[in-house]
Amino acid sequence: MSESKSKAAETKVEDGQITEYMGKRVFDFMRWRKLAAAASIALVVASIAALVVNGLQFGLDFTGGTQVEVGYEKAPRIEDVRSQLVDAGYAGASVVRFGSDNELLIKLPPEVAEEQTQLSARDEEATQSIGDEVVSVLRQGADGDVELRRVEMVGPQIGEELRDDGGLGMLFALFVVMAYVALRFQYKFSIGAVVALAHDVIIVLGFFALLKLDFDLTVLAAVLAVIGYSLNDTIVVSDRIRENFRRVRKASTMEIINISISQTLGRTFMTSFTTLLVLWALQFFGGELIHNFSLALIVGVVVGTYSSVYVAANTLMLLGITREDMMPPVKEGAELEEMP
């Protein structure tokens, strides 16, 4: 009795809304749910439009092609190397630093490899000949010697298999998430979680399509990491919502969601901020090789933080989540068993 009175004393109500619960401020997040829903829909539609119009710029991992690693005696300028390759007929070649300033990783599209040799992609002589030709071109404009470190070729069929397997892996991850949340919480929570995850993935993919950035296996790994990160935030908020439905008796669904998000807000922002610190370090100091990987994670963490606050909770509101949904089902014959 005294405990319930103390809880009531720590709850403040203004204009019919709970503004403070258990001594902590409650922010009215759901007040802006319609505006947030409109913004999310606009972002998703824009992302889908970018994917339809531009498509994803698949990297060598998915399209196939040749990858050549070379070492310079003196560090070259990336722009000069790209110009040399274009002048020599290697249009569309991607050049990034690999490990140190003296090491370069050159990715040639599949059509370039086909122009240079008509042999099979599995032929070691064909692969080596492309690497030797690239090195001979680079030596002409290099200030010092250029050495061939390694050369690898990925066939178009292998690239297509990687692309298809990656897409299936992403769909499978969403299905497993939906099944887990449905078993762990309730089916309405699983729908909210999957909607939030789909929202995050589509926006990240749309961002890459809009800016026409290379989409390779590292970016796919980043997208899958975004799914896990966003799910973690969503689970934390969902668990608090379920707990508060059972704990806070005299409150509406909107008030309970506001209380739950307010209670987890500090944890959500601190986790996102510390994660972004690491990702910003990778973005600015990690080199070009992981540039798109860290960029995809940065976009995903920002969007995932937003979706865990608004998209998942907003979906629960649309589905009409109630306190009764949190109650365990009554077993048949339970009343008869309790009778003397």
TrEMBL record:
Keyword Repeat assigned: no
UniProt keyword list: Cell membrane, Membrane, Protein transport, Translocation, Transmembrane, Transmembrane helix, Transport
InterPro entries tied to this protein: SecD/SecF_arch_bac, SecD/SecF_bac, SecD/SecF_CS, SecD_SecF_C, SecD_SecF_C_bact, SecF_bac
Localization of this protein: Cell membrane
UniProt cross-references to SUPFAM superfamilies, sorted A to Z: Multidrug efflux transporter AcrB transmembrane domain
Signal peptide: none
Transmembrane spans: 35-53, 166-183, 190-211, 217-235, 256-282, 294-321
Superkingdom assignment: Bacteria
GO terms for biological process, alphabetical: intracellular protein transmembrane transport; protein targeting; protein transport by the Sec complex
GO cellular component: a single term: plasma membrane
Membrane topology, record value: Multi-pass membrane protein
Gene3D superfamilies from the UniProt entry: Multidrug efflux transporter AcrB transmembrane domain
Domain Protein export membrane protein SecD/SecF C-terminal, residue spans: 140-319
Residue ranges the record marks as coiled coil: none
GO molecular function: protein-transporting ATPase activity
The protein's role, per its UniProt record: Part of the Sec protein translocase complex. Interacts with the SecYEG preprotein conducting channel. SecDF uses the proton motive force (PMF) to complete protein translocation after the ATP-dependent function of SecA.
Family that this chain belongs to: Belongs to the SecD/SecF family. SecF subfamily.
Quaternary structure annotation from Swiss-Prot or TrEMBL: Forms a complex with SecD. Part of the essential Sec protein translocation apparatus which comprises SecA, SecYEG and auxiliary proteins SecDF-YajC and YidC.
Protein known as: Protein-export membrane protein SecF
Organism: Microbulbifer rhizosphaerae
